[in-house]
What we know:
This protein has 216 residues and is α/β, with parallel strands linked by helices. The protein has helices spanning 33-43, 135-142, 154-167, 192-202; strands at 2-3, 8-13, 47-52, 73-76, 79-82, 106-112, 146-152, 171-180, 206-208, 214-215. Helices cover 20% and strands 24% of the residues.
Amino acid sequence: MQIDPETDILGLIDVQPTFMPGGELPVADGDIIIPVINQLLQRFDHAFATQDWHPPNHASFASTHPGRQPYDTIEMPYGAQVLWPDHGIAGTKSAAIHPAIDQTRIEAIIRKGFRPTLDSYSAFFENDRQTPTGLEGWLRQRGFSRLFLCGLATDFCVAWSAEDAVQLGFSVVIVEDASRGIGLPAPDGRTTLDAARDGLTDRGVRFIDSAALRQI
């Protein structure tokens, strides 16, 4: 697959220490993607990144709800919400983009989840699916039409970003070896990773490995 430097852009979704081994909400092998992402950053002329950027006592934290445990699900005004360990606290080192990431080609950073009562997985909308982050407008003004997404976690923030991007009319490719998932049990017996992959494939999202990419 060829990269068009004019219309293609790499999106780094939540590549933060908080989601890696040793962090507050670690994704298994989450740190393994760092060298792969750095290689991708050398192939793309343009990139953006997102960060989970939560205030303390965020409504999505299990610690905010007495008697609840991490990974419980509750109903919020905007729908079902998984409760997470405290993570991605704004201004902390663990909420920064991982220091080993080469940021020289990252042209925009979108911070999400900073509203105390509203969680945010997608790079485009908060979890009410209505409150925009502003990324769509930035991408359109810059002339990008195809997004190559990578990061953490494949079945949550990457998947929600990809779904919204397709809904907004962008073409989307997920770079699998530059991403890792959580894989929570899903109600239908699958994992959240299986469900996300099936749903995104049905929407036309392509899954590739970084070795399949080359520049024009």
